[in-house]
Amino acid sequence: MRDQWSSKIGFILSSAGAAIGLGAIWKFPYMTGMNGGGAFFLLFIAFTLIIGLPLLIAEFVIGRGGQKEAISAYQKLAPGSSWPVIGYWGVIGAFILMSFYSVVGGWVLIYSVLSIFGSVITENANYEQLFGMITGDPLIAISGLGLFLIITVIVISFGIKDGIEKASKVMMPLLFIFFIILVIRSVTFEGAAEGIEFFLKPDFSKLTAEGILYALGQSFFALAVGFSVMVTYSSYLGKDVSLPFSAGSVSIMNIFVSLLAGLAIFPVVFSFGLEPTEGPGLLFMVLPEAFAQMLFGELFLSLFLLLFLFAIFTSAFSMLEIITAAVTAKKNYSRTRVAWIAGLIVFIAGIPAALSSSALADFTIFGLTVFDASDFLVSNILLPGGCLLIALFIGIKMDRALMKQEFSNGNKLSSGTFQLWFQIMRWVVPITIVIVFLNSLGII
């Protein structure tokens, strides 16, 4: 018998955990800072609600409708066709994503350990230098990558109910609680109003075609849609759970966390005269400086880093789960064995990304380091491509009666609501993805 979620809240928190990770807490603030602030945030919200939410519902519908992990679900719903390539696309995409995602997880893990021992906030500390040391030392970066993956594999080995769900039920509520505390402290800094205005007041003159593509990609990245991760998660779900309600809950939680991330970071950035366009290092250099001004700052920083780490882990669980589930569905191997082998392969694949700030700093792909190239490939090509394929599958291939049944189970939504969702998936989602992508290439 397949493993199942033990409760609705367990599924929602685990799905939110899959979505709320680096996308919302690490990547969103610096992408917003580099693309004009409020206009990017507003566009991100619009894409999340108009494109991301329907896609999340679609993945849930496919997963519970097929009652199998990603690859097998498409094979069951479209036997003898080429549509199962969407499942393979997702597994490969999740693998590439995890190879550089785990590198950042390793950075946060190392920061957490250093902070617990009081080695981050020190007298005359140079946070830029510390970040450079952690990312630029090959041994430290690779060790962090390895340790992060070991912990992820251990949780996945315990399965859905006893591994992912139990971890998510603890990690996600704690993350929300501490994030709110952090925001309250952040907005009380002198000069915080300028940062709040930068984040919440749209200035569309600062938004480029590339920035629009980034906002679309960020909405996919932040909701964990496009790689059929949520297809796998929803395949473990009972028929009494409302998929639209669950997807709506995950989307709102994600937008809320992105809002909290912006309110936690940008007031501090402007209060201390820092640049919001500093890029990926923004979180690692700004937060320590903020906590250094607080009473018991090292303690608060340690707690936040640990909770940030929880969010990263819950996302990593979903990525390793889609890989593990795909292999165990095809071969009668134990989950534990597959998880450890998959973790080892991801570790090897992640080494070039881990060395992108040191030994491989001068090695570039189209002018980008291995880390940045992997990030660009995933966020701007593979994720939108996967979302487009899923939209086409819903609009062209999947049985309409089964879709309606899965959409309607566990709720009292009208037939018109289903039709609205279906038409959005059939027309709005694919057309929007194509237009934004072609616009970013300068074709239209």
From TrEMBL:
Q: Cellular component per GO?
A: membrane
The residue range of the signal peptide is none
In alphabetical order, the GO MF annotations are: symporter activity
Q: This chain belongs to which protein, by name? A: Transporter
- PANTHER family annotated for this entry? TRANSPORTER
Where is this protein found? Answer: Membrane
Q: Which Pfam families match?
A: SNF
